[in-house]
Specification:
Layout lengths: L2 H22 L5 H6 L6 H12 L2 H14 L5 H24 L4 H8 L3 H33 L4 H51 L4 H4 L11 H11 L11 H16 L2 H4 L8 H19 L2 H16 L9 E2 L5 H7 L4 E2 L8 E2 L7 H10 L8 E2 L3 H9 L4 H39 L5 H24 L8 H22 L5 H23 L25 H18 L5 H10 L12
Antiparallel strand pairs: 1-3, 2-4
Helix pairs in contact: 1-8, 1-18, 3-8, 3-13, 4-14, 4-17, 4-18, 5-11, 5-13, 6-7, 7-8, 7-18, 7-19, 7-20, 7-21, 8-14, 8-18, 8-19, 10-14, 11-20, 14-17, 15-17, 17-18, 18-19, 20-21, 20-22, 21-22
């Protein structure tokens, strides 16, 4: 059986599973559509939350980021997992106690203001739309490579799959589908890692193999990798840069994670407040299975790439064009991987052409620059089994896992958008007298429209698409996280303060990102350059600054205006004592 047929069979079976769950778990009420009837077991919810969180960025991109940057990008692991600790301790149980369906609903009711509710909806839609672009695009890439269809057709197939189980099942269908998707993606991620760890170190567990001896060299694997990178003029894998910027980026990811609405709403699906805490704990366990494996996957893949194509480093001759490995040619046709023989010697040189030492070597040998001109980091995990020469069924598993990761998060984001439109705009602001049947219809129509918009943006992604995730985290960190914190822990915070804070965080972060990344993410329209960063802070690290501006504006305005009504202060007091589910508002 050829590889493409095997891929289609494995991916097709996963789709059959998702469709079956969608029909079994069809939502019949708004409660089931928004919160799965609040009857999800904490362990099940933890697994669904893990799938919701571990997007194409976690499955496809994270190991690639670590592989090509090394120690510095461990910030992703620390920030994202640390964000779940914040969420479990500071947000999840209290928001569940409040007993609402969505984050904007909490903001609107806690701050007794439809204006605050609408601002929260705008922030939610902005961050969710930017986030979902990457998921849809990632699904298209996975389809195009493994099923040998165009990326456009791949994205359309992904949209159709999400449409069936998300529009039909709502949160109920998405929850149980995400459980299946978690099982698919974690198996797909760990099995290749185990194979490769055994190949390189003889150790079954990749986490152990990462710190073990490299069988071929007799040195520790990381020492071997550092040596190869040093020979090629790159920074050593285990070398870090600015501790200040690394800490700031980690903090941005932490509070951004804690403020992401599509993750928060998962904790509205459990029966009790205590279950919200247990859900967060189980989610951390399930996430850790992948996140503790990712550093090993990144390091081993980087080593495999270099020893496959340049087995002797710069001290030996570079690989001949006709001797490029089969996996390279397979991925080259996607346009995500490419070489250029700049000096016409029939061989491919790979080195850091910005390194002074390597420039001297290049001059002596007649090299005209690094000839690996294209290597999209997102392909690393997907190509890993082929690089290591693993069996075809493992490659098929990776295909199913990458698609599952993209679809699971896309569904969660689309549900958050749909709920904000149908429940927080239509039900709460535009037409409060709408029937439950009408609201459920509006929710499904909103979901369908959101899928169409997400598909369009996936087909026509804006420039600087890689920064869209940073924008989503920055917006969540700067707008919703401070507001939720103040809504739970400050009785004095009023509607004027909360609205001013959200606007300050939202506008400042958006402007900063647009100034450096280009207006509307159009390449070449950026007004400021990297050497003009505010206090040297890159756009991807700006979330905590926006959060501080949010807190400051909210505090100042709140203390200049009337304090909240007595019943709101009593409500906040009751929410802070997390005993009972929904007791604060009677839900």
């Amino acid at each position: 059986m050829d590889q493409t047929t095997l891929n289609i069979i494995v991916v097709g079976l996963s789709f059959v599973l998702y469709f079956g769950i969608a029909f079994w778990a069809k939502a019949g009420s708004t409660s089931e559509f928004y919160a799965a009837g609040r009857g999800v077991n904490p362990v099940v919810n933890g697994m669904a939350t893990a799938a919701d969180w571990m997007s194409a960025a976690s499955f496809i991109s994270m190991a690639g980021l670590i592989a090509f940057v090394g120690y510095n990008n461990s910030s992703y692991l620390m920030g994202w997992t640390g964000g779940y600790v914040l969420m479990a301790m500071l947000l999840a149980p209290y928001l569940r106690k409040f007993g609402k369906y969505t984050v904007p609903e909490f903001v609107g009711d806690r701050f007794y203001s439809n204006t605050a509710r609408v601002v929260a909806v705008i922030a939610l839609i902005t961050m969710s739309v930017t986030y979902v672009i990457g998921q849809m695009t990632g699904a298209g890439v996975a389809f195009s490579r493994f099923l040998e269809v165009s990326s456009t057709n791949g994205l359309l197939i992904a949209s159709a799959v999400v449409f069936v189980y998300a529009v039909l099942g709502g949160m109920k269908g998405i929850t149980y589908t995400q459980v299946a998707q978690y099982c698919v993606l974690i198996i797909a991620y760990t099995i290749p890692a185990i194979f490769i760890s055994m190949q390189l170190t003889g150790k079954f567990l990749p986490q152990v193999g990462l710190f073990s001896e490299h069988t071929a060299s007799g040195q520790y694997l990381l020492v071997t990798l550092d040596g190869l990178l040093n020979d090629l003029g790159f920074n050593q894998y285990t070398t870090g840069s600015s501790p200040w910027l690394m800490a700031l980026f980690t903090l941005s990811l932490m509070i951004g994670t804690a403020g992401l609405p599509h993750v928060i709403i998962r904790f509205f699906t459990v029966p009790r407040v205590a279950d919200a805490r247990w859900s967060a704990g189980w989610a951390l366990v399930f996430i850790a299975l992948l996140y503790l494996t990712a550093p090993a996957v990144g390091a081993m893949a980087r080593l495999n790439i270099m020893t496959t194509m340049w087995p002797e480093g710069v001290q030996g001759e570079a690989v001949a064009v006709e001797d490029l490995p089969d996996w390279f040619e397979t991925w080259r046709v996607t346009g995500l991987l490419g070489v250029e023989d700049k000096n016409g010697d029939g061989r491919i040189q790979y080195y850091n052409d910005k390194s002074a030492a390597m420039q001297q070597v290049a001059a002596e040998r007649g090299w005209q620059g690094n000839e690996l001109v294209t290597f999209n980091q997102d392909i690393l995990v997907l190509a890993n089994p082929e690089i290591a020469g693993l069996p075809g069924w493992v490659i098929a598993l990776i295909a199913a896992g990458g698609i599952a990761a993209a679809l699971s998060t896309a569904a969660g984001l689309l549900l958050a958008i749909s709920s904000a439109i149908s429940h927080d705009l239509i039900k709460s602001v535009i037409n409060p007298n709408i029937s439950e049947k009408g609201e459920l219809l509006a929710a499904r129509i909103s979901m369908a429209v959101a899928i169409v918009v997400a598909t369009y943006l996936g087909l026509n992604p804006p420039g600087f698409a890689a920064q869209t995730v940073a924008l989503a985290f920055g917006l969540a960190a700067a707008s919703l996280f401070p507001t939720l914190m103040m809504g739970i822990f400050s009785k004095r915070m009023n509607s004027a303060g909360a609205t001013a804070g959200m606007l300050a965080g939202l506008i400042s972060t958006t402007l900063y990102l647009f100034l450096y990344l280009g207006w509307f993410f159009i390449p070449g329209t950026n007004m400021l350059t990297a050497d003009q960063y505010l206090f040297g802070i890159p756009p991807t690290h700006f979330g905590p600054v926006g959060a501080v501006l949010n807190f400051a504006a909210a505090y100042i305005v709140s203390n200049m205006t009337a304090e909240p009504p007595k019943e709101i202060q009593d409500l906040v007091e009751s929410v802070r004592v997390p005993r009972g589910a929904g007791a604060a508002t009677g839900h």
